[in-house]
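Lab meeting, action items carried over

1. Structure of the two-component assembly. Owner: GW. Status: complete.
Input record:
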Amino acid sequence: MTSIKKKFKDYFKPEGIQQEMLRYRNNGVSSSLGYIGLISLIVAFCFQYSNTKITNKDVINLFGITSNGFLCAFDILVNILLMLFLFMAISRMKVYSSGWGIFSICTGVFEVIRPFIYPIALLRAGLMSGWLYTLYLICSLIAAASFVTAGFLSIYRGAALRNYLKTVDAIEGEKVKIK
Amino acid sequence: MASLSLKHLQKVYDSGNMAVQDFDMDIKDGEFIVLVGPSGCGKSTTLRMIAGLETISSGTLLIGEDDMTNKAAKDRDIAMVFQNYALYASQTVYQNMGFSLMLRKVDPELIHKDVMEASAILGLDKQLNKKPKELSGGQRQRVAMGRAIVRNPRVFLFDEPLSNLDAKLRSSMRREIKLLHHRLGATMIYVTHDQTEALTLADRIVVMSMGQVQQIGTPYEIYNYPANTFVANFIGNPPMNFFHGEIKDGTFIGEGLNVKLSKENLDLVKTYDNTGKKIILGIRPESFTQGNNHSFTVEITEHLGQNSLVHGSLEGHTCILKLKGWQRLEKGDIIHVDFLQEKCRFFDEETQDAITAVKAEKEAE
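Predicted assembly:
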């Protein structure tokens, strides 16, 4: 337990030599968690559309929109944009960006809420099977947990690195700028 | 750190080419050994056999008490610094230096401490976040050395690490390597074709030619008492002057050149006196003095600042003199010189080997 506590502390509240190490090492943990989240998101996307019937019949009513084709297209567009921005976020969190860490957390929160917007409407309309929805939900929650953890790690470790850099002379290639 | 024992190492390639013949040497713990010789003499092959990058055709290699003859390179606990640095272009200096420890799954905190220590020794602490392409040649070579240092190996191997650097940088890096050796007290084996590096860095030098060891000795011994004409010619810039002739009645007689020998020199070459056996008299360019016995006709003068190299002819024999100061000598000028007798060296014309007091006694018996 002591080693797990120590590891948790080293990750979220690095001190001493751990703080110094941040200067020369990338935030690999956030980056890895980000990629896990991204893969889960892609898998969830695949589950959502693998056996879902897209029909022109008005069986869905989401915020007053009944066109299933439109809702489907919008959902796919959101997925694509999200993945693009998440790639950016992962590369920036690798160098302790706080801003992109916040974006990652927000994405994680969105992934918790998202299954209960369009996918559940598909389920209720009988366009998506129950087991597919369950798989989609699990993948979304894994993605959510990964993005939130990655985001918080990036913010906390970035803050620790900035505090450390205030106490030492700057060198070329610093991973963060001291605000 | 460790001692090394190279027992009759040989390297024969499949084609039958014998790259290294009977290399036999004991290296003490903490010693700085330089293998020097012209291209193709087998020095890099010898180093690679020690590293485990080449198989040993015959002979035994011991590092400490351990027989490493057939062990893989990774198990020999040696670190090598290459001529072309061999750094990973996509990794920062920090990552390059810590990479070998990371592969060994060493604790990240320990890796960090070792890397920071090595970077402080080499003056790389401000460069740790840079990639190799952002560094100068000297800095890259220091990163390569730092990567070797963090491994804390038993033996360091250097394969012409300064060959890619300009002359001024080579000079400063030589100093750094020397300081590093003093600091670490490590056993180091260094390969170079540059005899200046050999003379300045080594505790002992191994001069090689065509796969064979010509001489092993301290820089002083190699420079002042070369074992044969090859060593005498290779070591020293400019090389030793050679005069071919024979000994008659205590005088060295070459074509047009007569050099009266001192008692000590005569004792050395007495078995050649009045025998008609051919002998070579060797003398370094800086070992002439002003005198009246020999005339030297100037061809060209090279000014080196503190010294001048005067090329010309000493009584019909091509010769180079190294004179102090800025000599204003023109082509055709004649100066008068003497041989410093204690600096004269003698070689057998047939074998090309140096005639030493021990050899002279044996021949006399």
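2. GW to write a short summary for the group page. Key points so far: The two ends of chain B are 45 Å apart (CA to CA). Residues 167-184 of chain B form the longest helix (18 residues).
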